[in-house]
Amino acid sequence: MITRLVMIFSVLLLLSGCAQTPFKGKIEKVGMLFPDTISDLVWGTKGYKGLLAIQSEFNVDVYYKENIRSDEDILKAIDDLHKKGVNLLYGHGNEYEEIFNMISKDYPDMEFVVANGTAKNDNVTSVHLMGEAMGFFGGMTAAHMSKTNEVGVIASFLWQPEVDGFIKGAKYENPDITVNTEFTDHWDNGNEALHLYEKLKAEGTDVVYPAGDGYNVPVIQQIKKDGLYAIGYVAEQSYLGKNTVLTSTVQNVDKAYTLIAEQYNKGTLKSGDHNFDFREGVVEMGTFSPLVDKAFQDKISDLVKTYNQTNELPSNE
């Protein structure tokens, strides 16, 4: 940790021109940092769509940098974009949380926005995409369509709220359902995810929720080959097979980014943590497969409306 801090401050000393007069309430230029690529068709692509939407709505120049992961690369990217005149900078992942909070005071004329992190300074904002409810409705769908009474989740980490939501939703729809859970301990470990899928399949699981944007596409492609069912994750994934993907749990981070930009441009953005869910239209259920009966689709629609009104998910208790 000490070595890392020394490196960070050493880089900061090499960077110049960090302090300018703050300009609040109007977007000048917008930047976005990606830990991976914009062409993954899931998380990265969603972020890039948000950047393009901001460009279109506010008629401003936008910049992006891919594969920005190390502390040194993050710091250099921030300084480069600052020199280009960027005053609204998005870090598309919680990888940027620590650095943004650490150096934001050195760039008082910039607003830093991080996805799924924690905001600790006056010019840092965090975007949180709520996952429990979408997981709940995805779990309901999985349990409703399972023929073996065995459904499964392949998630990256135990703390993901959509995992707990999926389990609760499956149990709400069918108290006798068995929910098998496996974890890759990484967002991008496709080989491990496929290995865990084979394990679930051998256990009799016939509906799988691959809750990791770095591996859900190849897992769903294998599910399709095996003639089983999937619940899509983060993006609308019905394009992978309308008779395979029963529905998708969609997080429109692009819309959340645009809402943040609108507030910033009006001068009404409050720094800190901002939560987005179904009510804001940022989280939603995707297209249902024609295999899912209309009565059940209507049931989900009604439950989503109730959730928006009460902020409470249904329970068997």
Automatic annotation (TrEMBL):
| Keywords in alphabetical order | Cell membrane, Lipoprotein, Membrane, Signal
Q: Which organism is it from?
A: Bacillus amyloliquefaciens
Any one cellular-component term (Gene Ontology): plasma membrane
What coarse category fits the chief subcellular location reported for this protein? membrane
Tell me the leader sequence span: 1-19
Query: Which intervals hold domain ABC transporter substrate-binding protein PnrA-like?
Result: 27-317
By sequence similarity, the record places it as follows: Belongs to the BMP lipoprotein family.
Protein's cellular compartments: Cell membrane
- SUPFAM superfamilies given in the database record: Periplasmic binding protein-like I (SSF53822)
* UniProt name for this protein: BMP family ABC transporter substrate-binding protein
The annotated topology with respect to the bilayer is: Lipid-anchor
CDD domains, sorted: PBP1_Med-like
Query: Which is a Pfam family this sequence falls into?
Result: Bmp
Superkingdom of the source species: Bacteria
